[in-house]
Amino acid sequence: MPNDFIPSRRRLVMLASAALGTSLLGGIGRLALADSDEDDGDNHFEESANTSFTLANTGLKARVVVVGGGMAGASVAKYLRLWGGTGVQVTLVEPNPRYTSNIMSNLVLNGSRNITTLGYTYSNLSAKYGVTVNEARLTSINSAARSVTLSDGSSLAYDRLVLAPGVEFMDAYGLTQNDYATATPHAWQAGPQTSLLATQLAGMQNGTFVMTIPKAPYRCPPGPYERACLVADYLKTYRGSASRVIVLDENLSIQAEKETFNHAFTSIHAGVITYVPGATNIRIDPHTRQVNYLDTVGNPQSANAQVVAPIPPHRSTGSAPGGWLAAAGLNNSPDGRWCVVDVLSYESTAVSGIHVIGDAASCGLPKAGHVANQEAKICADAIVRLLGGQQPDPAPVANSACYSPITGSTASWLTAVYQYDSSNKKMVVAANNGNTSGATAIESATISTQNFREMSTWFNTLMGDSFG
Ligand SMILES: Cc1cc2nc3c(=O)[nH]c(=O)nc-3n(C[C@H](O)[C@H](O)[C@H](O)COP(=O)(O)OP(=O)(O)OC[C@H]3O[C@@H](n4cnc5c(N)ncnc54)[C@H](O)[C@@H]3O)c2cc1C
User: Fold this and answer.
1) Are 65 and 39 in contact (CB under 8 A)?
2) What is the spatial distance between Cα 254 and Cα 262, in angstroms, rounded to a whole number?
3) Which atom of ligand 1 is nearest to the CA of 227?
4) Cα(386) to centroid(ligand 1), Å
5) I need a labelling partner for 193 at 20 to 30 A (CA). Which of 57, 167, 231, 239 fits?
6) Could you tell me which residues are beta bridge partners of residue 331?
7) Which uninterrupted H or E stretch holds 74?
8) Is the pTM of this model over 0.85?
9) Whose C-alpha lies nearest to ligand 1, atom 35?
10) Pairing mode of beta strands 307-310, 314-316
């Protein structure tokens, strides 16, 4: 096996750019709208019908099982094949034939997007890259035997296992999973609850919408504040000037894009949004939709809501007591909710041979789709190197970008580059604006229609890189 079969960092970047580039060469012929029942013009990544890949024979031979076909799992499956070559067999285990993107799903609430346009299938992964897609759910892991059992009773052996199962939602505020599904949808996993919440919003008239935000870490740090803005914009524009949005944040302050959202809450949506930081003791009656809570200074308050959208605390899927991930001992964060990983390889610090990426991982990076795609590439690169007897890249770099709609036609953005800090073995925000310590993510200086337009380009490129 040649020593240079593993792509150098520079070549990886070129390969990644090339892969990204193919999804942007939209003009050549018509492009597969790969995954949607309908074409609303700007919702899908575009790909050249002429694109074909001949995977390299790197000399590597291995079986990799990937669990979960979301942002992290789809990306890692694709890049393991691209970089590992023909001998690296990749099986993707995912129960659903189609993935619904959380990203952009807040725009379903105000009617800007139809949820069917956020759907992606796995046909590109199998047809273009030779990923074997197994439509089933993982039910248990035998890490000693290096095998997994699936919901159809079959089992799969692996040399490396990559878990990307996302999050599950905890019962909170006096609500059950059934309440979330039927009366008070969190809609923090895009799908039927998103449609239910959109329908409930459409039925409102001069009423109060209450939403909650759990303590960090949670999925998509700016997402709840974005939701508050979009709902406020929709209600005041279409549903009556007495409409109100109450945001009960269990955190003591806004968790992302502070300046942007502070401006949005106190200026753009002033008089509509009431932001309550440090809310505690939240109780929600799913039948009457009465919400009781203690406010920032601990005074009891209550609200009679027409619609309630609680975002409950969440944890890595399978980490509930008795869950498959907990049974394998992978949820080793102090609170038992997340999987702690080595950020050079995303290998679990609890169980060798098993990597965890995306929202289920505890790695210091935000729980976001763009970040999940980045973690997937670092993980795929590390696995390919490990399979070849080498060590993971000692200095990985990741970036995060995110657009936040503030109204139906304007948006802001947030971005950061993360680099490995070997002194504390963590990913930290790289220096920006000459600031070498305590660097933070950068938010856009303006909220604009141009940002709103560019948001679609960013989204389609990201989804093309993950599913295209
Ligand atoms: C409203 C909203 C807006 C957002 N906006 C943004 C944004 O603008 N930018 C951004 O970067 N991020 C955004 N996010 C966050 C982003 O969607 C998540 O961080 C991302 O989806 C995480 O990817 P993941 O692969 O870890 O999980 P997911 O994408 O949830 O995928 C997990 C997959 O695992 C599968 N699975 C679960 N259990 C099993 C099992 N036992 N066996 C097999 N498969 C299983 C599931 O079916 C699912 O397909 C947003 C989230 C929300 C809710």
Assistant:
1) no
2) 8
3) 1
4) 27
5) 239
6) none
7) helix 71-84
8) yes
9) 68
10) unpaired
Separation of CA 311 and ligand 1 centre (Å): 15
370 vs 223, 367, 459, 465, CA distance in Å? 13, 9, 9, 10
Q: What is the pLDDT of residues 415-459, one digit of tens each?
A: 999 999 999 999 999 976 555 566 889 999 999 999 999 999 999
DSSP structural state of residue 302? E
Beta carbons of 338 and 216 less than 8 angstroms apart: no
Ligand 1 centroid to Cα of residue 60, in Å, is 30
* Cα 270 to ligand 1 centre (Å): 32
Domains of the chain: 3-168+315-393 (3.50.50.60), 172-312 (3.50.50.60)
Q: Which atom of ligand 1 is nearest to the CA of 106?
A: 1
Q: What is the pLDDT of residues 244-272, one digit of tens each?
A: 999 999 999 999 999 999 999 999 999 99
DSSP calls for 185-208: ----SSSHHHHHHHHHHHT--S-E
**What residue owns the CA closest to ligand 1's atom 2?**
102
The protein residue with its alpha carbon nearest to ligand 1, atom 9, reads 402
Pocket, ligand 1, Cβ cutoff 6 A? 67-73, 93-96, 99, 102-103, 105-106, 137-138, 164-166, 188, 219-220, 223, 317, 358-360, 367-370, 372, 402
Q: Ligand 1: which atom is nearest the Cα of residue 74? A: 25
User: CA-CA distances (angstroms) from residue 56 to 171, 290, 348, 401, 411?
Assistant: 48, 60, 29, 31, 41
Ranking 11-15, 90-94, 456-460 by mean pLDDT, the lowest is: 11-15
| Whole-number Cα distances in Å, 88 to 7, 57, 59, 441 | 15, 9, 9, 36
The per-residue pLDDT for 433 is: 59
Structural tokens at position 327 = 């049974």
Q: How far apart are CA 289 and CA 284, in angstroms?
A: 6
**Beta carbons within 10 angstroms of residue 331's beta carbon:** 26
* C-alpha 432: how far from chain center: 25
State pLDDT tens for residues 115-173: 999 999 999 999 999 999 999 999 999 999 999 999 999 999 999 999 999 999 999 99
